[in-house]
Amino acid sequence: MNIKTNSNFKNIKETxxxxxxxxxxxxxxxxxxxxxxxxxxxxDVTLPLPAVAVEAMVxxxxxxxxxxxxRGYPPESGHEFLKKAIADHYTADIRLSEIFIxxxxxxxIGNLVDILGNNKIIIPDPxxxxxxxxxxxxxxxxSYISGSSENGFLPMPDQIREDGAAVIYLCSPNNPTGAAYxxxxxxxxxxxxxxxxxxxxxxxxxxAFITGDLPHSIYEIEGARECAIEVCSFSKFxxxxxxxxxxxxxxxxxxxDDGTSLNKMWFRRQATKFNGVSYPVQCAAExxxxxxxxxxxxxxxxxxxxxxxxxxxVLDEKGIYYTGGKDSPYIWLKCPGGMDSWTFFDHLxxxxxxxGTPGEGFGEAxxxxxxxxxxxxxxxxxxxxxRLRELL
Amino acid sequence: MNIKTNSNFKNIKETxxxxxxxxxxxxxxxxxxxxxxxxxxxxDVTLPLPAVAVEAMVxxxxxxxxxxxxRGYPPESGHEFLKKAIADHYTADIRLSEIFIxxxxxxxIGNLVDILGNNKIIIPDPxxxxxxxxxxxxxxxxSYISGSSENGFLPMPDQIREDGAAVIYLCSPNNPTGAAYxxxxxxxxxxxxxxxxxxxxxxxxxxAFITGDLPHSIYEIEGARECAIEVCSFSKFxxxxxxxxxxxxxxxxxxxDDGTSLNKMWFRRQATKFNGVSYPVQCAAExxxxxxxxxxxxxxxxxxxxxxxxxxxVLDEKGIYYTGGKDSPYIWLKCPGGMDSWTFFDHLxxxxxxxGTPGEGFGEAxxxxxxxxxxxxxxxxxxxxxRLRELL
Lengths: 392, 392
Prior knowledge:
- The structure is a homodimer.
- By secondary structure, chain A is an alpha/beta fold.
- The first copy, chain A, has 2 domains: 13-42 and 294-391, Aspartate Aminotransferase, domain 1; 51-292, Type I PLP-dependent aspartate aminotransferase-like (Major domain) (Aspartate Aminotransferase, domain 2).
- Chain A contains 12 helices and 13 strands.
- In chain A, strands 2-8-7-6-5-3-4 form a 7-stranded mixed β-sheet, sandwiched between helices.
- In chain A, strand 3, helix 5 (129-137) and strand 4 (142-146) form a beta-alpha-beta unit.
- In chain A, helix 10 packs parallel to helix 12 (378-391).
- Chain A starts with 16 loop residues before the first helix and ends with a helix.
- The relative contact order of chain A is 0.17.
- Chains A and B meet through helix 2, helix 4, helix 5, helix 8 and helix 9 of A and helix 2, helix 4, helix 5, helix 8 and helix 9 of B.
């Protein structure tokens, strides 16, 4: 064919992280057929859907099978019943017209570039790869601000070297570091954005893991309505990774200098390139936001949190630096003895039969760090912790 | 904010079609409170989901609620069981790696611009607005090729005035005209695309309505694997407008001149900006492709087709020119007496209390035409036909 393809795709790095992990694990298993591996690299939930979600989905599926209750095309931005449940879930005031239901946070984070022009992009490192790749696909230039033990893997605005307005991606609690901004830190980010005319794209997909007094939403910070879009998800809160539902808040106060409303642009983008979320899925999402739904979800989160506590306790005992573990299902630790990420991967696999994720796979600033996750079973996590205790 | 937004959004026309219809209908009802309106403008299915789909969705929802059968993140391009069912549904040979499951045809049609560069775009007029708007949002220049009574609302390559490669959108059976290309016509399109190095984006969302000997897929035409992407949907075939599932075929033979594989690009796009379709929805989609599923779906389509037959019979009797009605749920008729689209809309509403859709809303070439749809009940359609018989 003689047509032009999007040449920006050539700038996206192939990621070998998970295939490289798989191939090292396979080789180890072939050489050590008796080894009992424990996987602490899982980035996906493992507990089943809360009962309220299943019941709501079954009820809705049956409604779809009867003439009187059948539903056709949903509104592109979501059914009102779910928008109401989400608005009620926020402590900040969010209007229904500012809520856009989608099939997941990843889609929205990836698609938001559609309504933006060619801006400077600021992304923390290490980072969830979608921020980077979706911007590379659009030909945008990215500047990174590094996490480190000095800033607790919570990069701050004073690290930005460029002047002027930018689109800034923040994720708190963070994937992969588990670090979460407190109110004072997020306030600094909002102040910086307002001062420079920047837009923050705030990924709060892990907010349900927050136990301390940290903001669950950027809209808890004054001024955020004029400078921030928030993307959130049912995936980690309610175990919806395979059920698929998320939402994005685009405040009506978000205006470009020429008066363009980002809310109206996102509405138009979604109405043109999206056709709404499955009715049974939206019903399940509504159900998990009920009182009983939240109780069931929080039981699952507490289960994962116990795993995180167990792992964190070992690292505390051994005096190993880490972020996360609290307010997050991720534990991000400094590889002991100055090992690099992949050396520690092999060390942990060979000596303790534990599979984790090398931090280097999430960006340059992840080199020398390692991610463990709390999504395993209590039994496996306990066993992994006793192996870690011996090894470290 | 001082950031740049996508200025191409300024080139998209606001569409007032459906809001204008709603306001004219509301006014009529206020002035004529006793009038019994019949809506033949519905573009959405109305019959409930086939039983197999409901059963599969209920089964899958229950699986999601049990530890042993819970499913997390689906593969971004779809579960293999559904890809297999789709591949088996094609008469042409389609590899599983060429099938990408999504939440619907609209998403894929809209998102395909992401992998393309700045090409000439050829779009038939009248047309489904997503082809136009998604290209305007990307800043692409569109040339239209007009449908008319001369070409039976099936524009052909000899109408193209530009030289060289282009991205060409085709929809057959067409929305809104109901016209469908035959094998000879589609062969001409494929030959044209191969000769000029063009890419065809082929929307076959209405293929299940084909009753005659017409191609259901562009891959029934030799050479299409080297020049065509096909987007299809469960929405009209299985009544999935509110359940949300579709798919796109990107053949591995589709290569740009520099060797770039469009299949690999679309895989990367979806893996970056999409996270797969809900497991219960994919199970429902698999179920409708079973032998019993297809029987249940085709019963619903036969029901709609009877409506289309009734409407077409009236137009035949009255000697009114139309396309569609056969092989499509849409009937696209020439407004009688040289009326323009909106005059006929008011005429039909005022004299027969029937609501349809003015053709002008689908593009300039739609002026003087009118769309009726077959998605109503038999009872209402029959009543509408007897009113039409009196009026026309």
